[in-house]
Amino acid sequence: MVTAEMVRTLRDKTGAGMMECKKALSESNGDLDKAVEMLRLKGLATAQKKAARAACQGLIGSYIHMDKIGVLVEVNCETDFVARTDDFKQLVKDIGMHIAAAGPAYLNREEVPADVVEKEKEIYRQQVQGKPENVVEKIIQGKLDKFYSECCLMDQIFVKDPEGKLTVGGMVTAAVAKVGENIVISRFTRYQLGETAKKEV
Predict the structure, then answer these.
(1) What is the pTM of this model?
(2) FRET pair for 37, CA 20 to 30 Å: which of 43, 71, 96, 189?
(3) Which CATH number fits the domain 4-50, given the four candidates 3.40.630.30, 1.10.8.10, 1.10.3720.10, 3.40.930.10?
(4) Does the structure show a pLDDT above 60 at 18?
């Protein structure tokens, strides 16, 4: 039998709605862990659908590292209710900390200027001269994917992921699944002490 206490516990763990929690507990015969897994899988499946929804609320987070690196990042969600939750605040903090540590140059692949991409491709072409054209294209795409994973925030591996597999984009998708709202990293700025002085020299 599914009790109100079980439903509350599942809601606290996943952030899902009361009816969704009750249904998941019923389908899992009261197994809390199985119900959590069911809700997460369902959430991930619907995350893509939520991506088109307007996200106008959220937070501007700040992160300072050793008084040497500073980050401002804007992360948006759909409602002020979600923006005030501890989970959302932690997500914004984690993203700011990641930006400070990893120093991404761009938010996502779409932001990388076409001339930068072409320059990278040209370097890769020179590295694989003499190989068959179909092989060359695959190698170039692989190297380009690695380039994106190094310089684009959404493609970077989250610095706190112990397994070294979860990207920042994947972390955002998981958060969407958990809170049930669209979440978007809109923009960020990273400052490092002495940057302007180096440019002037």
Answers:
(1) 0.69
(2) 96
(3) 1.10.8.10
(4) yes
